[in-house]
Amino acid sequence: MQKNYFLAKLSGLLILSTILVLLGTLLGSTGANWNALGPDQTILFDIRLPRSLGAYLAGALLGLAGGIAQSLFRNPLADPYLLGSASGALLGVGSILCFAYLGNSWLEIIGLNGGAFLGALIGVLASLLLAGGYRSSLRLLLSGVVISVILGAANSLFTFIRPDLFQSIQSFMLGNTTLMNWSGVAIMAIALFLCLAITSIISPVLDALSLGENTARTLGLPLDQLRLVFIGILALATGCAVAQTGLVAFVGLAAPHLVRKLSGGRQRVQLIFSCLGGGILLLGSDLIARTLFAPLEIPVGIVTAVLGGLYLLVLLKRTSFGGRS
Amino acid sequence: MKEFKDMHSSIRSRYLAIGVALFFLGFSVAVFAAPFSVVDDQGVVVVFDKPPQRVVSLLPSLTESVCALGKCDALVGIDRFSNWPKSIQNLPKLGGVGDVNIERIVQLKPDVVLLEKASPVIARLNSLGIQTFALDIKSMGDEDRALQKLDLVLGTTESARVWNQIQKEIMRANKQLSLQGKNIRVYFEINPAPYAAGGSSFIGEILSQLNLINIIPKSLGPFPKINPEFVVQAKPDVILLTESTTTDIQKRPGWNTIPAVSNNRICVFTSEQNDVLVRPGPRMGEAALIISQCIQEKMSSPR
C-alpha cells in the first residue's frame, strides 16, 4: 500500500520535472517560441536545453546535499553550505579571477568552475581538520562556521584590493545559470548518479541516526566510517553544483522541508524526494528569473530565496513545526 | 570709398573687441574679488570666497576633467584609481570608494574636495569644515555640464574648448569608420555575468554617435544583465570586451554561431584602453577613436 503511494508521488514529481524542462526549452529571451527547425535549433539545443537540465541537476544536487546535511547533523537548519564549502568556492573563484592576469596556463585549465569545485573541497577539508576529525557533530559544525568566516574575510580582502572584480564575484554569489553548457550538464549528471546510488545504499544509517547517536552506536553500525562517506558525498554534490551555478541561495535548506510531508519519515524516500524538490525549485526559479523581465535577467538566487522562503512560511503557518526532522 | 568703409568697420570692430575684452577683464576681476556660488549636482549651493587653490579629487574622471581644464597644478590629492595624466602620479593617494582617508584629507587643507554624488564621506567632510562639490556624471551630457560647473568653480574658461575637442575626436572617429559599410551591429560587454552596455549609458551614446547599432536597446537601462541567448539571437557583427574573456566567449554554449565569434571579430581592450573607455570624462573622444579603430581593423581584415 505504502509502496504504491511512493510510486505515485515519485511519478508525480518526475512528471512535474519533465514539464518544467520542456517549459525551459520553450521560454527564452523573446517570450515563447518553439520551432525546432531552422536557425533556432542552436538556441534550443545548445542553450535552452542544457541550461534547463543544468539548473535542474544543480538544484537536485543541492537538495540531496541539504537532505543529507539535515539528517546527518539532526538539525533542520543545516544546509549544504554549512561546512565551509560555500566560502571556499567563493574564495576559489575570487583567486582565479584575481590572478587571471598572470596568464598562467594552469589557471586557464582549472577555470572558474574548477576553482569553485576545488575551493569547496578545500573548505570542507579545512573544517574537518580544524574539528580534529568527524566524530563530533557539534565540533564539525562550529569549525565549519569558523572556516566560513575566515575564508569569507579573505574573499572580502580580494574584492577590496581589486574592486573591478566585485561584479564578477557578486554574480557568482547570487547564482548564475545563464552560461550552462553540455559538458557541465554531463559532469553534474554523473555526480548526481554516483551520490544518489551511494546514498540510497547507506541511507539506513541516517534512519538509525535519527534515533540519536548513542542508540545508533548500540545498533552496531560502523557509524564513524559511514559518517565520513556522507560528508564526502555532501562535499562532492555541493562542489559540483556550486562549480556550475554559483552559490544559489536557499535551495539546499528549503528542498528537504518542501517534501518532508510527502516522504513520511523514511530517510531513503526523503532524500530522493528532496533531490527532486531541489531540482524543481531551482529550475522553476530559473524560468521565472529569465522570463519576468525578458530579455533582462534577475539573478536566480534572489528568486529561489523568495519562492522557497514564501513556501516555507506557508508551511510554518499551517503546521506547527513541533515534530522532529 | 570701399576702403574707407572697411577701415571704418575695422575700427569699429576693434573698439568692440576692446570693449568685450574690458568687460571680461572686469567680470573676471569681479569674480576673483567677490565670493561666488555654484550649485553642485546634489542641489547644494557651494559658496567660494575665491577660486580654490588646493583641490582634492576623489574620482578618476573628475581628476581628468580638472587637468583637461588646465588646473592640474591645483590638485593636492587624488583617489587610488586616478592614473591620468602622468603628472599627477606622485600626488598623495587618499583611498578608494569605501576607504577614503579622511584624516589625510583634513591634513592637506583643501579648499574644495570634488567627489561623486553618492559618496558616503560628504557629510563627514562638511562637518569637519571642508567644502565638497559633488558631481553626478553618467552620460555625455552630464560631462558637458560637469565641465561647465568645474569651470565656474576653478575660475577657468576652458570647458567649451575641451568639449569641442571631444566632439572633434568623435567626428574623426566617425570618419575613420564611415568608409566601411553601414549597419554594423555591436555588443559591448562590461562584465562576463554578462552585463552589457545599454543604449542609455555613455558607452552606448558613443556607439550611437559612431552610427554603430547597439544590439541592446535603450529601454533596458544603462548596464543591464541580459540573457546570453538574446545576444546569440541578435547576431552582432563585432563584440567589444572590457575584460579579457575571449577564450571563455568561444566556449559559451551556442556563441560560435554569432558572426562576430565565428569571424573572430572580437575587440579586447588593454587595461589602459579600459580606463579610457569606462570613465565618463574628457577622454571620451579618445574612447570613440579606440572603438572605431578596432572595429575598422576587424571589419577590414579578411575572414
Structure commentary:
Chain A has 325 residues and is an all-alpha fold. Chain A has helices spanning 2-26, 41-72, 85-98, 105-131, 137-161, 166-173, 182-202, 204-209, 213-218, 223-245, 251-263, 267-291, 300-318, and strands spanning 27-28, 31-32. Chain A has a single domain (2-318), classed as Orthogonal Bundle (ABC transporter involved in vitamin B12 uptake, BtuC). Chain A contains 13 helices and two strands; from the N terminus they run αββαααααααααααα. In chain A, strands 1-2 form a two-stranded antiparallel ribbon. Chain A starts with a helix and ends in a 7-residue tail after the last helix. Chain B has 303 residues and is of the alpha/beta class. Chain B contains twelve helices and eleven strands. Chain B folds into two domains: 33-157, Nitrogenase molybdenum iron protein domain (Rossmann fold, 3-Layer(aba) Sandwich), CATH 3.40.50; 179-300, Nitrogenase molybdenum iron protein domain (Rossmann fold, 3-Layer(aba) Sandwich), CATH 3.40.50.1980. Chain B is 46% helix and 14% strand. Chain B is globular and about 65 Å long. The model of chain B has no long low-confidence stretch (mean pLDDT 85). Chains A and B meet through helix 2 and helix 6 of A and helix 8 of B.
